[in-house]
């Protein structure tokens, strides 16, 4: 057991590598020149139209966001719900009306409203306060993946812990495509007297929305071709992990860091499903091998090799040594939510945090 626990201690030492980096070259299932559909975003304030996130550079090249760091985290974190991984972390479920939500699925992790308005409110508030004082062990006992993927308690204590794992998919040298479509109803509802002529634009729009009239659509987003390739870049920041402490206790700090490293390695080496969204099914490019390296503080890069099974074995041993927090089943409480809206914190004081809604950090 000790040999397993000490296997990656060099990565946790003060002179250890700055990070582990995985670089994977991807392509659409149709081939390198296949069309893929990036995510579309709503228009920001002051802009008339949203769309793909494509940055154009002065040299004529460009870069397109295919899957954001937040989206990638959302895809990876729920793996700890699976039977193979569930015992590595406490399973905290919240019953909100007829819905049951696991904390692993909550948008703001340990800082989410759905868990803040439960009997865990005070415990989590104290854990965030302890984190601000340099002790993240209490948070690791309730929500350890908040340490792996990052968390910001923006509505209360303002405690902010950086994500250790950051993964992003981008496409390069993008060619934009458009598409057009024409909807034809199953019958000529108006012309055949099955429906009255629409009296005004509002009625005409209602007919269109309900599928009773012809609806043309042209020039909408039609996907892209990434002539410069598609790449997933993932980083596990060992330098940031080494900043995590369990207060002044050196032995508990070592156990904590091993535990969080174990969870991070499991998440880092997890093979994500290829399907990201409609029109975006990406697989590895067999002609461009993936890279897995450790990057040292002097900038040198050295091959690293950790299989997913190795990561699970290490994480299991580290979890046993650290002591995984207990599973919890709690209920969302309307009274706490009402107090939260008014800005009352768990200790009865008015909260100073008035942060607006944020996604996962």
Q: How many strands in all?
A: 16
* Overall pLDDT metric: 92
| Rg | 25 Å
Helix amount:
25-40%
Q: Give the CA-based shape.
A: globular
Structural class: alpha+beta
Oligomer: single chain
Main β-sheet description: 9 strands, antiparallel
Encode the helix/strand succession as letters. Answer: HHEEEHEEHHHHEEEEHEEHHEEEEHEH
In the predicted model, the low-confidence regions spanning at least 5 consecutive residues are 353-359
What is the CA-CA span between the terminal residues?
A: 35 Å
Number of helices: 12
In a few lines, what is going on in this structure?
The protein is an alpha+beta fold and 361 residues long. It has helices at 2-5, 9-12, 69-76, 113-116, 121-132, 137-142, 145-149, 201-209, 238-241, 250-268, 308-322, 334-341; strands at 19-28, 54-56, 62-67, 92-96, 99-102, 151-152, 160-161, 165-172, 174-183, 215-226, 230-237, 275-277, 280-284, 291-295, 301-303, 328-331. The chain contains 12 helices and 16 strands.
Structure description:
The chain is α+β, with helices and mostly antiparallel strands and 361 residues long. The protein is built from twelve helices and 16 strands. The protein has helices spanning 2-5, 9-12, 69-76, 113-116, 121-132, 137-142, 145-149, 201-209, 238-241, 250-268, 308-322, 334-341; strands at 19-28, 54-56, 62-67, 92-96, 99-102, 151-152, 160-161, 165-172, 174-183, 215-226, 230-237, 275-277, 280-284, 291-295, 301-303, 328-331. The strands form four sheets. Strands 1, 2, 3, 8, 11, 12, 13, 14 and 15 form a nine-stranded antiparallel β-sheet that branches. β14 (291-295) and β15 form a beta hairpin. The chain starts with a helix and ends in a 20-residue tail after the last helix. Mean pLDDT is 92; it is low at 353-359.
